Amino acid sequence: MPRKSKKKTQDNKQKVSIFKIIVYGTKIFIKTMPVVFALHLVTSIISGLSLGFITLITQHLFDSVADAISGKESVTKVYLIVATLGIVYMVNEAIKGLKPIIHHYTFNYKSQIEMNKIIHSKLNRIDPLFLENADVHDEIEKAKGAIGAIQFIIIFGSDILTLNLPYFMFMGIYLNHLKPQFLLVLALVFIPVLLGQFVRPRITSKYEDTAAPIRRENSFYFNAIVDREYYKETRTLGAFSFFFNRFLDSLKRLGTEELKMNKRKNFLELILSLVSTTGYVGILCMLITALFQGEITVGAFAAVFFSIDRLFQETQGLVNFYIGNLTSDFGYAQNYIRFLEMPERGGIDATPIIGKGISAENVGFIYPNAANKSVDNVSLKIEQGETVAIVGANGAGKTTLVRLLIGLYKPTEGKVILSGMDTANVKAESLFDGVSGVFQRFQRYQMTLRENIQISDLDRGSEINTVCQQAGVNIDSASFPQGIDTMLSREFNGVDLSGGEWQRVAIARGLYRINNVIVLDEPTAAIDPLEESHIYHKFVEISKGKTAIIVTHRMGSTKIADRVVVMDKGKIVEIGSHDELIRKQGLYAEMYDTQSEWYENESDIPQGGIRGDAI
Fold first, then answer.
1. Which residues lie below 8 Å from residue 396, measured CB to CB, with a gap of 6+?
2. What is the pLDDT of residue 324?
3. Per-residue confidence at 191, pLDDT binned at 50, 70, 90?
4. How far is 161 from 48, CA to CA, in rounded Å?
5. Looking at domain 9-340, does it have CATH number 1.20.1560.10?
6. Is the pTM of this model over 0.90?
7. How confident is the model over 418-433, as a mean pLDDT?
8. How much is the pLDDT for 613?
9. N or C: which end of the chain has fewer CB within 10 A?
10. pLDDT-based confidence at 585, cuts 50/70/90?
11. End-to-end CA distance of the chain
12. Rounded to an integer, what distance in angstroms lies between the CA atom of residue 155 and that of residue 171?
């Protein structure tokens, strides 16, 4: 069950500068679509300048009309100015029509794909231990949600620089030429509103920190109600109302936080609008006064009068939409950069040395924020080609030890040497080269049977049928109508498998990967002990010559191992063969005697492979 929202330490997170976000996002746009991005910039510049020229041409038009009426100008000149104004308008409107196409292409296509690829590439480099932390999952969730924010910042931020800025510079020069005092009122429109926008990122960032864990809760409860992995149990046990009420509660809490944010933002918008309106009225009054005093011509009055509304709208749009959303999205975009700056596993490249096996020397490990060590002062040597079973009660540290032995976790104390490589100093890619495993919580991928198996080793192009036979996956027309290309998902017009069939597919996936070290970490915990023995006997047969590790809290399968490692409270308390440990009459013998009734028919276990009904 997801944790409840709590006050986080994220208030102390390092701030990310807007400059860093702009530089980062611009690099992505230039890399993925240089021509389209250049077209976006050029059209923005043309659009901004055309708005300024419209104001200038409008002044000449009205002055020419006045002169034509008095006989000082020809009517032909008036029509030429009208034609020029029409052309500029058409160019501006054509660019307006082109802009949404460019934005759609850049928003929804290459940049989004590229930034998603970057997130997943980063996830592959993060220390797997970080993923045990719920706060890290919040950061991942926020990073995914920040992609649109970065796109908005780059697209519309560049609009400010290439469209709005040229237009306002043009109008500033123009108004200063008419009467310098006009610039003062223009400043009154801009400055207070711009200052107010810096409040928005704080409002949004505070909301996002609170809302992200609540959204994860809401998603969990929703899946518990409708997901096919949950709904049978929730309906059968009458748990629907429990999850539905939790879903509604999280939805209400999310709505409450969003309402708080919107109230703060709307109040800010009200203040900013009042300031902008005051500036708008002020410049109109100054314009009328200047006309009556003969300081400007009728053409200048008309040009400024018609453009002032556009200027006001552009200012409102710039401040309330562009800058408002930019500063708001800045709060979101920081999450993306922070995620990319999370510490990575790092290390050096190395090549596994076949035949070196695995050794652990005085290894200790403690999970972040945990009070006690999960693994405490463990020393163990596993030879190449040896099969070792690691047993113990739930919580004894078995799985944690295995994760240390295969390099998934770095030891807090001591060191682990895997195939000649120190797991603390070598890159994960090098460590996992030649390592395979099947785990208790194996995944049921909604893909074809071929894809379910091939994903463990994409460079290997054959032998799927052989591996399926080894794992006991019977590819018959009843279970797999399209053979190895059968889709394993009813949601995608395929078939579903039983729990036992999925277990066989998971084992086939682990076997398919070319490996020197292979682990079975209780992938059969959901089936009965006798059938587990069938699977482990076949596993040992397949993994001959490899370093094989079996993790279990059941004793019935340990006879097949060369050695048995017994763990209790994070320590190795016994080690030896099955027969040696039974004669010792220690913890292993006690556990075996307790479970012996589960295996009273164990003599019937075939040694040649997994029975057709074994799973």
1. 553, 567, 568, 569, 570
2. 64
3. low
4. 10
5. yes
6. no
7. 87
8. 36
9. N
10. very high
11. 29
12. 23
Helices (H), 70-160: 75-105, 111-125, 134-145, 147-159
Alpha carbon of residue 458 to chain centroid: 23
Residue the block writes with tokens 């009728």: 298
Name, in order, each residue with C-beta under 8 angstroms of 140's C-beta and a sequence gap of 6 or more: 119, 123, 339
Question: Which ranges constitute the DSSP H helices of 160-297?
Answer: 165-178, 181-197, 200-226, 231-236, 240-292
What percentage of the chain exceeds 90 in pLDDT? 21
The string of pLDDT tens digits covering residues 28-53 is 888 888 888 888 899 999 998 998 99
pLDDT of residue 531: 64
Instruction: Say how far apart CA 334 and CA 20 lie, in whole Å.
Output: 9
At 65 the pLDDT is 92
Token reading at 75: 């009517």
What's the rounded Cα separation, in Å, for the pair 360 and 408? Answer: 14
221 three-class SS: helix
- Kindly report the length of the chain: 615
Domain boundaries, the chain: 9-340, 443-513
For residue 609, pLDDT beyond 70: no
Q: How far apart are CA 555 and CA 559, in angstroms?
A: 8
Cβ atoms 284, 308 nearer than 8 A: yes
Top-confidence residue, 571 or 329: 571
Q: For position 549, what pLDDT does the model report? A: 92
Q: Are strands 563-568 and 413-418 parallel, antiparallel or unpaired?
A: unpaired
- Distance, CA of 402 to chain centre: 28
- Helix residue spans in 391-427 (DSSP H): 398-405
Please name the residue ranges forming H helices in 406-528. 428-432, 449-454, 464-471, 499-512
Per-residue pLDDT at 165: 87
Q: How far apart (Å, rounded) are the C-alpha atoms in residues 62 and 81?
A: 10
What distances in angstroms separate CA 335 from CA 70, 116, 349, 485, 576, one per listed residue? 65, 14, 30, 40, 51
- How far is the C-alpha of 461 from the C-alpha of 34, rounded, in Å? 36
Closest CA relative to residue 253, chosen from 212, 220, 225: 212
pLDDT number for residue 101: 81
Residue with tokens 């999925």: 502
